[in-house]
Amino acid sequence: MIRSWAKTDPGPKRRxxxxxxxxxxxxxxxxxxDGAGGHQAGDVAATTVIDALGAxxxxxxxxxxxxxxxxxxxxxxxxLRQEAARRGSDVVIATTLVCLVIxxxxxxxxxxGDSRAYLYRGGALSQITQDHSLVxxxxxxxxxxxxxxxxxxxxxxxxxxxxxxxxxxxxDKVIGKLHPGDSFLLCSDGITKTLNVAELSAxxxxxxxxxxxxxxxxxxxxxxxxxxxxxxxxxxxxxDKSWSx
Length: 245
Prior knowledge:
It is a single chain. By secondary structure, the chain is of the alpha+beta class. Helices cover 28% and strands 26% of the residues. The protein contains 6 helices and 10 strands; from the N terminus they run βββααββββαββαααβ. A 5-stranded antiparallel beta sheet has the order 1-10-9-6-7. It has a 5-stranded antiparallel beta sheet with strand order 2-3-4-5-8, with helices on one face. Helix 1 packs antiparallel against helix 2 and helix 5 (197-204) runs antiparallel to helix 6 (212-222). It is globular, with a radius of gyration of 17 Å.
């Protein structure tokens, strides 16, 4: 059985919430989109992508579902670029995206930007996405240490987003086999820039008795989060059969 929880909040320092989420356990699809900070109409961008995903049917084949997701996101990317061009030559309407698909005992995660996915397995939390961001590139090239990512002055600069960039949109992907008791956290950077790994793990350790997203959002607000905060948690009580498609 798969259960999920989802919650979003503008945060104490923002008037508007430019995060959007999708919580569709009925079709095995979950997502978080964060309208790119500093750009115009980030809420429009995030809503466009999440609405496109929410309109998808629950295809039984994982392969077909992933193809449908890529087509929907690519279409949203085109729509956002066209709308930005209509508004002006210097306008960018963009959003990050992280989404999770679960089918027949396997999971697949697609993403662009710095909204993240974590896997909580056996009491240990691991990040399964890699940020498309300037600070991640600095870590990869050894110019800064991993522990200094969140506090870096350019921590808000993303290098890939839906609706932005010159190159054709590319969604990175990771696929893995489900283990009984696995849980996943999808979240915007308002969460990861506010809560440390220990706090994220503590919130997931309450499953299945409490709502972990309420704990995550409450903790982020208590820490005076400076951005919108969004969390989606998916708990897998048991693994199914085999990967289909």
